[in-house]
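Working notes for the structural subgroup meeting. M.R. asked for a predicted model of this chain before we commit to crystallization trials. I am recording the input and output together here so anyone reviewing the notebook later can reproduce the run.

Input as submitted:
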Amino acid sequence: MKYLIHALVVTIGIASANIAFSQNGSGYQKQIDEWHAKRISSLKADNGWLNLVGLYWLDDGRNSFGSNKQNKIVFPQGTITELAGYFVRSGNTVKLIANENAHIKVNNEQVKEALIFTDSAQAPVVSSGDLRWTIIKRGDKIGVRLRNLKSSAAIDFKGVPRFAVDSFWRIAATLQPAGNGANILITNVLGQTSVQKSPGKLVFKFNGAQYSLDALEEGNELFIIFADATSGSTTYPSGRFLSAKKPDADGHTVIDFNKAYNPPCAFTDYATCPLPPKQNDLPFPVTAGEKYDGHH
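Returned structure, recorded in token form:
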């Protein structure tokens, strides 16, 4: 009875959205559980967020690195030789000059010198022992994102708390197109604001009132950054992320808040997460998806 009442509340005023909710019960629970299991596996993967151990912004010119504290960039003790070499930043390019005893590889080939970042090509993976790093660019900042494949944070990870799965939070929505050239402003945790192209707003009904969330495009899906009345209490203070299928020919899709997940910054200090735009702060509590236990 609870699910029937919830479904009626959600679908009031959305007669045009012919989306059937046939996945209630154990089948729907299994689907969300499987999605969540993949989510945990991705966090623990070699390229996941749990094994990040450093983010070092580069100055123009030479940036010495290694485990010795005399270096400009100090990698964690015991993970690399004391004097491993230099990163040389010149504008928007970064060159690596490696000391021989550092045993540094670029794309699995040992090197003494290599160009490891330009604006026009994907940054290669650089490695030494259990360390892996890539060069990232955020606005005018260029930095070294460092991973340790034997990070205790990944090895000892116990999972992510979440609300009980409830199909009440699987809500019909309609994409209201933004038109050509529509943009929204997205600010990240570094305080940098960028202009992002938006395909429009996802409009939906909740408890008889209409709300909307500005969406971004991410591959074949829509990507939403949102906050709600649980943010900072039972969920991550800086909001959560959510993906939705692109709409069908009639503009209809589904927002499934059971798949709301924490941003990388909930797990590491070394991410540069986007923050929810002001218009995506929902005034009601979304008691679905991932919680935040305040551990990080």
